[in-house]
Specification:
It comes from Thiothrix nivea (strain ATCC 35100 / DSM 5205 / JP2). This is Transcriptional regulator, AraC family. It holds the Pfam family HTH_18. The chain is of the alpha+beta class. It folds into two domains: 157 residues, Jelly Rolls (Sandwich); 101 residues, Arc Repressor Mutant, subunit A (Orthogonal Bundle), CATH 1.10.10.60. Helices cover 46% and strands 15% of the residues. The strands form three sheets. It has a five-stranded antiparallel sheet. Strands 6-5-8 form a three-stranded antiparallel sheet, with no helix packed on it. Strands 1-3 form a two-stranded parallel ribbon. Helix 1 packs across helix 4.
Length: 282
């Protein structure tokens, strides 16, 4: 079994380029992940895009949002559009207090990882992509200009995602879903209790679950299990580590409990899942 490639980008930089200029990047044909954010802007409909083991037909004029750690692949030949990549550090420098586009576009596991803007929405988005590509190609790219363009682009994309002009903020004893998902991302391997998250959010566990059921129809435990299961699938399908090692890496003290958890969630034991879905040796 081949280890999945994991690519990086300079920690304080951004790349925006026409997709046609990167059509010879054959590595994107195979499952890979990276430690930076990526937006793939497809102008023409095309072959499938595989994102975390789900296959999506690529609609014309669509934008796919790929967060760090996601596993994806697609055939770049014949694709037209833009490729936008930027580091978490660059995103942090571009964001202002109150911005929540990171959750809506990159961390919302409950929606498809793409949007298809309407024609009147598309003009502004593609114009901003063009400006970023132009600035990146200049002799002396200005990071402050690029940060402004990136923030405007992500806010515009968030508006398309949400279907409204503003993002609802927590009210009446609520909390930020962005903050919660960031916490889950940071702690899912340590199997923190619901009470841990409750203390961090200054709410009771009962209140957190009430709000989550209202907003996304799931409990905190379900969100934790979904994130844990996603990482287990990634490791089993695309990694080389032994199942026992994966169990320990994911915070299970007893590998047998990991096997029971995985089978309960998927209907397969970890070894069965790897046999049926793993990459061929090579």
């Amino acid at each position: 079994m081949q280890e999945i490639p994991n690519y990086e980008i300079a920690p304080t930089w951004i790349v925006a380029v026409r997709m046609e200029e990167r059509c010879n990047d054959s590595f994107v044909n195979n499952p890979h992940r990276h430690q930076f954010y990526e937006v793939l802007c497809f102008e023409n409909a095309g072959d499938d895009h595989h994102v975390d083991f789900v296959t999506y037909a690529i609609p014309g004029n669509s934008l796919f949002f790929i967060s760090p750690g996601m596993v994806h692949s697609f055939n770049p030949m014949g694709k037209q559009g833009y490729l936008l990549a930027f580091s978490p550090e660059f995103l942090a420098q571009s964001r202002l207090p109150g911005d929540s586009f990171e959750f809506d576009l990159f961390c919302d596991y409950h929606n498809e990882p793409f949007i298809v803007p309407a024609e009147h929405e598309r003009f502004a988005l593609w114009r901003l992509l063009s400006l970023m590509a132009f600035e990146c190609k200049s002799d002396n790219p200005n990071p402050h200009i690029l940060q402004s363009y990136l923030r405007a682009f992500l806010l515009s994309a968030q508006r398309v995602r949400n279907g409204c002009t503003t993002h609802p903020q927590p009210v009446n004893g609520g909390f930020s879903l962005t903050k919660l998902f960031q916490m889950i991302e940071s702690h899912y391997r340590s199997n923190e209790t619901t009470e841990f998250y409750a203390s961090q959010l200054s709410l009771s566990a009962k209140r957190i679950n009430e709000i989550l059921r209202q907003r996304i129809g799931k409990t905190l435990t379900q969100l934790q299990q979904e994130r844990l299961l996603l990482e287990a699938r990634r490791e089993l399908r695309l990694g080389n580590a032994a199942i026992t090692e994966i169990a320990y890496q994911l915070g299970f003290e007893d590998p047998a409990y990991f096997s029971r958890f995985f089978k309960q969630q998927t209907g397969f034991s970890p070894s069965q899942y790897r046999k049926h879905h793993g990459q061929p040796s090579g």
